[in-house]
From TrEMBL:
This is LacI family DNA-binding transcriptional regulator. It comes from Saccharopolyspora rosea. It comes from the Bacteria. The keyword Transcription applies. Keywords: DNA-binding, Transcription, Transcription regulation. Signal peptide: none annotated. The lineage of its organism: Bacteria, Bacillati, Actinomycetota, Actinomycetes, Pseudonocardiales.
Amino acid sequence: MTSRAGRTTIVDVARAAGTSVSSASVALRGEPGVSAQTRERILAAARRLGYRPDRQASLLRRREPRVLGVTFSVEQTFHGDLVENLYRAADASGYDLVLSAKTAGRPESRAVDNLLRDRCGPLILIAPELPRDALAQLAARTPVVTIGSDSPAEGVDSVHSDDRQGVTDAVAHLVGLGHRRIAYVDGGTAVMSATRSDAYVRTMREHGLDEHVRVISAAPTEESGIEVATGLLDGDDPLPTAILAHNDLIAVGLLLTLRSRGVRVPDDVSVVGYDDTRTAALATVRLTSVSQDAAELARRAVERATTRGDDPAQQIVTPARLVVRDTTAPPGR
């Protein structure tokens, strides 16, 4: 069957080949993004139907920018690192980015809606908090890739670092230095908070430190780190000799507060963060932290967003790496 006026369109080709229109378009333009088998099926259907591309429509498409939509949180330093690397990766693939921020007064759903209204192509969502069913519904409309979440949704590609290994390595580093009273400050409702907290508890138990397991509830902000440090200093219990934080923001809040109250870091208390942000590497901070490798996460996310085609969604896990700096040392040094 052909479209009106007897002219075969790309919709007819896609229907005959049993693929999506976007896959048919990719194959007919000779671009990467579909499997060899799918490409041949589409080309065979085009030949059989006598398909000829609409030159005017083709010209209009070429004028359209190749754009990826990205959501991120303005409150999270690591998201800024990711966005910078996403620009690099997108540029290398011939794409540009449109950013839509999540803020205290601008929920993630609105950030996504704005990208859809701007008619962006695939979407890359950094640490999304949308429910799985909402992500799946979104993926039915446009390709979706998440960064920094290990909670997969149907049809959604996921790219994240091995957070369990990252936390395991951080705890092992502290144990190797001689620490036993190692506390963990979690990220509250933040994405990956439960994963990292569970990894801490498991690793402490594997090292025979069950009696020293201590998870402190917090939020993924510097202010929360300040509050936790103040509570520890003003409390009746002895200070832990080491503290591992959900992210660098919390760790910096802890670090600055401890130092301002006369606690020597790392001599009295060692501090470890997570994300290895630019702040962690500052000469005045020199924070030991777990790196997620923002450049690799961005590269893999852009790769999936721009070349997935009809491939099934994937969950891609990249290595985490402990970066040791000046905020960890043996206890009571």
